């Protein structure tokens, strides 16, 4: 016996004289079963050479001649409408005694053995992974089971089954990311109990010796999930409307202008004609009034004072215009805090790292050494961990971007950009898809189907549908409209400032009144003496 092995072809040649009760087809059937059980080879050719005696009636005394026949067989699990049954198919037979009949080179040894329609053959589909990669829909009659498994990693597999007329039989999916059930899924794939394993199957080199890896269905990125910047309070934003240097320059101009008014108004030739700025406190009051846009009690008369006054009015008008424009806009939309972009920003905010059971399992195999510098909080569920990052805002974690977007949709978030935030640098990207048993005859058809679906954008359409359906069923709707109606709540800081001014003015007035009363009493007492 000799053999030749390639990835998709296996050639075995046997020769000798077969017993009369054993046909070449039976030999081919037994050999094919052995090949599939040992190495799971499904695309193979078997050449059986059988030398047997044939009687020749034309010869004298009934002599017999030895005839050597060669039979070529191939086999597949889906021949002649049969489902997952290894049946040998006779390609051709040759009589090796006659040279003109040896047409070996003209024979196609690997004809197409897969039908275009599989006539309802059962396709066993296993799955593992969290939502949205694997989603178990209960009480939906489908085949022999009372549940239907969908999800981002299974939708194209289901479309393949519908297109090829398979009857899908879903095995119980593994929704919890525990190592033992996941390894059990791969064991079922190797033993042939599962025809396709889908969901969040990562394409790593360790799986290649044990399964056939089709074209990747989607590529996801593992990133640090951090709290998004919060909207700044209106009062804080107004206080930071101008920088400290701008506020200081405004105050410096106010003081200098007040002193210049006082000095220019106290010269001997102007004191009698202009009395509005003779007192320093009146100069500060007039300068403050101009800055606020309030009229002064008296206009200056001299040319120099008027030039100084009009220059200060123009300056105050420019500052007031800019202030009012920013003031109104910040009252309506005060903006957001600084976004976290690097791990140094996370360290500065003193966030706690949120971990989960899967993270503890893979932390030793991934480059997460920098996480040792953070305090750690362990969650039982990864959904709870991600939600805590988004809404409680006191932790950060590491997970896939598709999953973070799904958790936001699950919570009813309409604008994910305000809830789902990541650090700038990704940790790494990983391809996900499905796995077939080693040597599966469906690999070529499945690869062509996946390529066509990805080129048509069907996966993105289904991903949008998943998020839309989840948002419609969400119990909590976090609605944040980009349009803000200007109402009394936006004017509250203005009224607070106005009330503070009234209280301060009343206090000053009361203080001046008391001081005046004290001075009048002192004058009366001095007259008595």
From TrEMBL:
Membrane association type: Multi-pass membrane protein
InterPro entries xref list: Insect_Ionotropic_Sensory_Rcpt, Iontro_rcpt_C
Top-level taxon of origin: Eukaryota
GO cellular component, one term: plasma membrane
A GO term, aspect molecular function: ligand-gated monoatomic ion channel activity
Keywords, sorted A to Z: Cell membrane, Glycoprotein, Membrane, Receptor, Transmembrane, Transmembrane helix
Domain Ionotropic glutamate receptor C-terminal span(s) in chain numbering: 244-501
Protein name: Ionotropic glutamate receptor C-terminal domain-containing protein
């Amino acid at each position: 016996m000799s053999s030749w092995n390639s990835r998709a072809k296996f050639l075995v040649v046997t020769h000798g004289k077969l017993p009369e009760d054993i046909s070449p087809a039976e030999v081919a059937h037994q050999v094919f079963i052995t090949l599939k059980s040992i190495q799971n080879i499904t695309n193979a050719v078997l050449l059986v050479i059988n030398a047997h005696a044939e009687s020749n009636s034309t010869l004298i005394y009934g002599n017999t001649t030895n005839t050597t026949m060669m039979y070529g067989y191939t086999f597949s699990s889906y021949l002649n409408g049969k489902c997952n049954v290894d049946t040998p198919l006779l390609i051709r037979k040759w009589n090796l005694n006659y040279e003109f009949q040896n047409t070996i080179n003209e024979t196609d040894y690997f004809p197409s053995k897969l039908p275009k329609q599989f006539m309802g053959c059962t396709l066993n589909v296993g799955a593992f992974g969290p939502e949205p990669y694997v989603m178990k829909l209960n009480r939906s009659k489908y085949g022999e089971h009372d549940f239907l498994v969908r999800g981002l990693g299974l939708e194209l597999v289901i479309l393949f089954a519908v297109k090829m007329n398979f009857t899908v039989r879903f095995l119980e999916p593994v929704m919890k990311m525990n190592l033992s059930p996941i390894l059990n899924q791969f064991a079922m794939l190797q033993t042939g109990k599962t025809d396709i394993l889908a969901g969040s199957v990562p394409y790593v080199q360790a799986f290649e010796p044990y399964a056939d890896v089709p074209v990747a269905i989607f590529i996801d990125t593992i990133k640090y999930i951090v709290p998004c910047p919060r909207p700044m309070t209106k009062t804080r934003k107004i206080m930071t409307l101008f920088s400290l240097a701008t506020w200081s320059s405004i105050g410096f101009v106010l003081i200098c202008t007040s002193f210049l008014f006082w000095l220019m108004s106290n010269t001997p030739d102007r004191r009698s004609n202009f009395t509005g700025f003779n007192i320093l406190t009146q100069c500060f009051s007039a300068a403050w009034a101009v800055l606020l846009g309030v009229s002064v009690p008296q206009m200056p008369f001299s040319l120099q004072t008027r030039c100084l006054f009009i220059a200060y009015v123009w300056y105050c008008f420019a500052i007031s215009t800019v202030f009012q424009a920013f003031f109104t806009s910040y009252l309506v939309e005060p903006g957001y805090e600084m976004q976290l972009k690097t791990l140094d920003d996370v360290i500065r905010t003193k966030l706690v790292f949120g971990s989960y059971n899967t993270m503890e399992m893979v932390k030793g195999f991934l480059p997460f050494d920098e996480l040792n510098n953070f305090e750690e909080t362990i969650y039982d569920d990864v959904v709870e961990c991600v939600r805590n990052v988004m809404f409680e805002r006191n932790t950060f974690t590491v997970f896939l971007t598709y999953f973070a977007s799904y958790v936001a949709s699950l919570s009813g978030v309409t604008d994910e950009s305000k809830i789902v935030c990541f650090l700038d640098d990704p940790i790494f990207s990983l391809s996900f898809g499905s796995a077939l048993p080693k040597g599966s005859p469906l690999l070529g058809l499945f690869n062509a189907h996946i390529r066509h679906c990805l080129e048509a954008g069907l996966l993105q359409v289904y991903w949008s549908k998943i998020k839309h359906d989840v948002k419609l069923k969400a119990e909590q709707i976090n609605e944040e409209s980009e349009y803000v109606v200007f109402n009394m709540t936006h004017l509250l800081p203005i009224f607070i400032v106005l009330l503070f001014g009234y209280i301060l003015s009343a206090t000053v007035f009361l203080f001046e009144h008391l001081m005046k009363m004290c001075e009048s009493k002192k004058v009366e007492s001095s007259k008595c003496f």
